[in-house]
Amino acid sequence: LAAFLEDIALVSDQDTLDESANVPTLLTLHAAKGLEFPNVFIVGLNDGVLPHIRSFDDEEAMQEERRLFYVGITRAKDRLYLIDSLNRNAFGYSEPTVQSRFLEDIPIDLLEERFEGGRSRRVEMRNDFRSTRWEQHEPAVARPARLNQPHFRPGWRVNHAVWGEGMVLNSRNQDDDEIVDIFFQDIGLKRVVASLAKLQVINED
User: Fold this and answer.
1) Handedness of CA 144, 147, 149, 154 (dihedral sign)
2) What confidence tens digit (pLDDT) does each residue in 118-172 have?
3) What pLDDT is recorded for position 137?
4) What is the reported pTM?
5) Which residues in 43-193 belong to E strands, given as ranges?
6) DSSP classification of residue 144
7) Residues 46/139, Cβ–Cβ less than 8 Å
8) What are the Cα distances from residue 105, in Å, to 30, 101, 138?
9) Contact present, 50 and 100 (Cβ < 8 Å)
10) Residue 203, φ and ψ in degrees, nearest 5
């Protein structure tokens, strides 16, 4: 039994990877240790994710998060894609994010391109580059909503291209957009972003 457990402890999912298969491999940074790939995508590079929010007040934990990021970077043989998000959805709400402080420690001349809004542009030095970098930083805080009133009103009937006709139950401004709660007869309650949903107002009764 002791020999069996010792052998099992040394086996991991990486040992069964077929490196010749032309498919993407999804794995955590911890599981990537010791492996290499031609192209590597590291996603979720936002403060609170990497580094994890629980490491903000612990210098040793922050250093470990930094080492973990280094592990991920060095898994790439040819190309490395570092991806952060402008907003993250949690509990039905979209909140703005802060780019991982680790990204700002990478020399700008080592970065090739930067993609924003579906388009790429050459890298430019951010004008808010922090001198303290990752030692002192506040977690992301949602921006206040606009002062003007929401466009959609409770009781309005609207039409969605996929879900059909529905009734607006609630609407509020958030992050320069409008979040609308709509009840569709066949689908039920849906929460949509007005700029993306492209709602058509049927009536304003």
Assistant:
1) positive
2) 444 434 434 343 333 444 444 444 334 344 678 898 889 999 988 889 999 988 8
3) 42
4) 0.50
5) 76-82, 87-90, 93-96, 113-116, 119-122, 157-160, 164-174, 177-184, 188-193
6) P
7) no
8) 21, 7, 17
9) yes
10) -155, 165
